[in-house]
């Protein structure tokens, strides 16, 4: 069959989702809705004049030790929460107790593969298309038994109890089974992004002296090429998600190599008693995505994980056995691992999917068959902002294409619902919203299965426009979270009844959040109208530090005179009067220009990203000049549509990116976006370069959470950046 190329294998998660078609509005005539519209306008107008929004105190000042600053804790708890329930002090104990409590409930679900086929494009490339069936489920009791069997099989095959096991796989049920198996033998699991480059992979495995590697079949194929560099590896366990060629296995004869099923069967027939951990034992060494160089291994304890779990369980409304969760983000990211642990503790069903199979029109879904959300119909989802941004842009694009009455009706309904949300608390359940929801927004909700009731967003700042889009078009609250691998995802989380935008909520109940003045940067806790400073997080979610890197650990982790552990995030935040925190800057992103002006790169990028022409952007400021420049990955469709309307002739997209008129058009758009955001003249890039290739985790230019890897981008485009300054 020749070389098989995975469809859009070099695309990031957000791009895979964004390229899917968006089912959208029927063309509504006005006759059928005039009465509904009048009713929708009059009722909320009368009622919103009666009711007004009350400010709720969400955090209160806390008496803590350590460096002077302003510290806050969640107002709903008098002390920090540490465990979800008595006895659940470790990941192993939590899963065992949950499995007994919810034994017959659905736990882990995977779609049955009916068949796969390959289609050939015009340029000769072959793309895989999948026909997937219904979800097949393990109950909580069955999932727990599999984890026990895997734990026994792992030891029986020869894994040394004093060494580490690594999981190098895309998100799937076997990932959680393997992790829980490790926890039952008090083995530290090293988690590695499936998109990690070869050098970073070798670094991670060697630094932690991994003796057993658990991987999926796609990652298995990468091992022969680097086998000579892996010093401590002795055993390989591969998940049979795709056929594995005999030649690949033959190249790894120097290792003990078994399939995941074989290890489970080995443990089933040769039981080994559990060796249970304590809360202070390291559960996971989680490698960060390496946005500033080689990834660092963060040591996360069992106590850290269960504390974050306990805290988040108090935030998500009515979380429980009736919920269904779609899992598709990388489990090697603390955001997804924490979320799935919360689901396991709550008796929620976890259905696994992928970015390539999520919707009916996703790249890997065979035409005429159903995507993951259509089959699973989840009630809960988490996302990173870039994905939600693309869903929003895709919907608005469809609305614009339909035009006419449809667009006018959509715009009117959108603005009315926006006014209802921002006008009073009554707007969140007004009859007007029910009318618009059924008339206009129901088809949009079908994009995500039609039952989503809560979306948790994290990994990067969520724009106000996108948050409002989710509130209006999906009719759901968006819980925007803030945390880092070093805080085990736990720091702050906006509450479901908070309709404000741009903030990340109050501190989670498992930790304190403190602002410490940064005089050099001009951020102090005495600032008006709100105190500002570096965000420092302390409490039960603060991790042990970086593996084999004491110097870096001592730089950003501190223990105060009361024994409380604190992590210095490097982010700049401000406390609102109700105790919620807003992230406004980052110390490392601030550059001082030649004439003394400060440029916050992240702030500028966020503002310029609102341009329709921007798919991705990195602003660069050289301290020896008085202006900044930018590398821009243009949005293909938007720029090509402009070129078509402007009569621009070009051979391919790369040539279009080099066109002077195209560069001028994008630069004018950036200038307009910058002025709208009230940026200073020196903050708006004086020169730009358009880059035709997208930045993806696979390319190594963005992290798995889609954050810019500045150093890698600067290195790759060093010559181009120099040219922009000359």
Concise summary:
This protein is α/β, with parallel strands linked by helices and 726 residues long. It contains 24 helices and 28 strands.
Question: How are the SSEs placed, and which strands pair?
Answer:
Elements: H1 13-18, H2 34-48, E1 59-61, E2 70-74, H3 91-101, E3 106-120, E4 126-139, H4 140-156, E5 164-168, H5 173-184, E6 189-191, H6 198-207, E7 210-216, H7 217-220, H8 223-226, E8 235-239, H9 246-250, E9 256-259, H10 260-269, E10 282-287, E11 297-301, H11 302-313, E12 324-327, H12 334-346, E13 349-352, H13 372-376, E14 380-383, H14 385-402, H15 404-423, H16 431-445, E15 454-457, H17 464-474, E16 478-482, E17 492-493, E18 511-516, E19 532-539, E20 545-546, H18 550-556, E21 557-559, E22 565-575, E23 581-586, E24 590-592, E25 598-600, H19 601-608, E26 614-621, E27 628-634, H20 636-646, H21 653-657, H22 660-676, E28 687-690, H23 710-716, H24 718-724
Parallel strand pairs: 3-13, 5-6, 5-7, 6-10, 7-8, 8-9, 12-13, 14-15, 15-16, 27-28
Antiparallel strand pairs: 1-2, 2-18, 3-4, 10-11, 11-20, 16-17, 18-19, 19-22, 21-22, 22-23, 24-25, 26-27
Helix pairs in contact: 2-16, 3-4, 3-12, 4-5, 4-10, 11-12, 14-17, 15-16, 15-17
